[in-house]
Write the structure tokens for this entry.
Amino acid sequence: MNVTHHLTTFCFVALRAYILSPRVVLDFDSCNAAFGTIYKNTTDCAALEEEESVTLYTLREGGFVAIYFWACFIPFSMILWCYFNQRIAPVSGSTMPLMMQSDSSQTSWTQTGYKGFGSMSSSIGLFLYLLTMITLFGYQILLGLTTIFYYIQQDAITWFRPVFEDEIQVLKVHAITWGVGFFYTILLKWPTSIRSVFYRRSTLADATHVAVMTPRAQEKMAEETSSRLKAIKSVITVIKNAVTRVMSFIYCDRRATDLDFDVAYCPVEIDGNGIRHFFFRLRRYNFDDKSQLYIPGSIVVGETLNDYLRLRSGLDSMEVPKRRSVVGANTIKMTRPIFIVTMISEFSKFFYTYQVFMIWTWFPLWYYYMACVQSVIVFTGGLVVSIFRYRNERNLYRITRVTGNVSVLRDGVVNTVSHTELVPGDVVVVEPGMAYADMIVLSGNDIIVDEAALTGESTPIAKVAVDAAEGNAVYTYMSHKRHSISAGTRIVEAQGIMAVVLSTGSHTSKGEMLRDILTYQRHQFKFDAEVKVVVGILALYAIFGFTLTVLLYKDDFAFEWYYGM
């Protein structure tokens, strides 16, 4: 009995140990052959077979081939369009000299006509523009997808199954996407705007946009700069000019002699009188049917004081529309600032483009927390700068927005009109309040003007009428300040004063001040001469550090690239 009992116990323990002992399953077939008669439910084995049958990418699939083709086709199409638009069929007479002032003979400015997205030829440009923008944002989407694929491969994301063979493969795909996307984005940073690249050249008479090319302010190297720094800066200048020539060749939009020019694309508008015009630096330029050119819209009322005295009777009502069609309304045309537009403009700068791509290099290899920190820092900095930019633009815009009425003498009768209807040559009754135009006093001596808004002078200044005895003198503002009233100043006291309007809109002292603010070229200091040298040295240091990392890391290039970056 005891023997039987012990034998039974031994057999039970052995059987239990056999059943509970671990087993290694190699594949579905062996699993099913060994345990098919024991286990009726083959769910686990089927799951193993399904896992073994997952298809991994080899980067030679049709989708990848399509992406390769797309990445080559879009830049090639853009270059081909530029070559066709600027070299093969540039449209004769589309580029002509542009005068800064109506009485100026300078020809360093040029005007080039372009037709926006509308006609058949420009529709092709619109199609290419949309493809270019889709590609630009597509690279960012691909970088995000490859980052997700990396963490799927690392089992950090378990909702999806890995689609790449290993960690190295997904890192290589991410690095290639980064490199191609970075250079593609930098290529599109060169032109004034991406949209302007795809405008079709046209005659000025048919143009919907006019490209104004103006000389860039020349930088003068500080005299205190050492000869070594001058030599380094010269090398950097050579490299910069080489890059500029390559970009100019790609876009075919500038000659080699035009490297120091800026280009602004101005939309063409049509006023109520059917006059085609555009605004550049707050100044209006009208299309002249005779010369087929855009010319500055300005009127010279007179030269000598006698010329102004002859205008005491005011203008004829038939003359006013003619003058308004030349100079436009008595306003300073400035676009109302929008914060979102300002923020987009700020984040579109090269600095932020570089920062965005550097952030993408932090996401793989489990450095995502560094990417998040850098993203917050870059976004916060750009947001703060955007806020200050918007405030400055809003303050300037508020200066241009004024309302009010004036009493003007026309056809021998004094009528009240909006200040926007004033034209050069109008005779107005000066009353206390804002001065809406530059004027010269014709009669009356009891007038006091507060010029603090323009000159900062805190003490109001008395003005007197023009003396007929000085009638032959040529009028200049500096010589005849005591007779002049500037737009933007405030008239403190006036009674029985008549004045003739000299200029309106952006031609006034107020308009010139705003033009100087918007087109101000800051002075070059020693720091400006040396900062480019410092940037060049840092670039060389970065290249050296990247090369050293690749040589010393001794691993697959995918890891070397990320640690080098």
Remarks:
- Residues 1-8, 10-15, 17-26 have pLDDT under 50 and may be disordered.
- The first strand starts at residue 95 and ends at 98.
- Residues 120-153 form the longest helix (34 residues).
